[in-house]
Amino acid sequence: MAEKIRQYWQQRAAESNGDVTATTNDVYLRELEHATVTEALRSFDLPGGATMLDVGCGDGYTTLHVARNLPRFDVTGIDYADAMVELAAQRLADSPDLQQRVRFQQGDATALRQAVGGVRFDVIMTTRCLINLETPDAQHAAIGDIASLLKPGGRYVAVENFVEGQDAMNIARAAVGLPEIPVRWHNLFFREDEFRERAGEHFERVTFHDFASAYYYATRVVYSAMCQVRGEQPDYQHDIHRLAPKLPPFGNFSPIRMVICERGNR
Question: Which of 3.90.180.10, 2.40.30.160, 3.40.50.150, 3.40.50.720 is the CATH number of 2-262?
Answer without folding.
Answer: 3.40.50.150
